[in-house]
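Retro notes - structure team

What went well: the batch runner handled both jobs without manual restarts.
What didn't: labels got mixed up in the shared folder, which is why I'm recording both outputs here explicitly, each with its sequence directly above its tokens.

Job 1
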Amino acid sequence: MTTRPADAAEVTRIAVRAAGLVPGVSVVRPAEVRLDDRSVGLDLHLITWYGHSVPAIAETVRAVVADRVAASTGLHVAMVTVTVDDLLVPGVDVSAPATVSAEGG
């Protein structure tokens, strides 16, 4: 059974958690959530690890986030825009947390 979240903060939480599960994603920062009665649009910013295909990660994040938000809320996901802001190099960059909360974004 799906339930509708009370607000954009709940949609943000679901999206950030889902995106953070994608292999190669280090940090997820929500940029914007556009929510109405039947649909939602999301903009996310990511930091990924060197050695992973950026286009593949972006497409996987789009699909995973759209599926998870739709399943959890019953809303139609009209758009998920993914921007990769940085690329971390193993052995050079320090590991970051898997996700960043909406409040920390």
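Job 2
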Amino acid sequence: MKKVLFFTFIMAFSASLSAQTVPGINTSDVKKSGMDAVSKENPNMDAQIKDALMKDEGLQKETIDYLKSNPETTKSLTNIAAENKGSNQGIMKAILGDKDLASAAIDFISKNPELLSKAMKVIGM
């Protein structure tokens, strides 16, 4: 009788373990949380992103395209583009000189893990 009771206990225990599921880890969540941790660790992140924006044409183009498509920044960016006659370097200087546009550009890059990684590579980190 004790053997049957022991065997039943073992079966119930193993069934309860197999019914539990372990949540999977999403790699994009891990990358995003890693970039968030890097940005929190480094208080000079804004200055570094601005520096990378001034150096890399690819980052400039992607940021300008984002600001063009963002309804909150389209009007300001259109005015800046007209004043600078299409020069990405000039447009970027004007964007970074405007507090609201600079904030939008930095947020865009800091919240995009791929672009943030590219910006860090540009400045040598």
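One thing worth noting from job 2: The mean pLDDT is 77.
We'll revisit the folder naming next retro.
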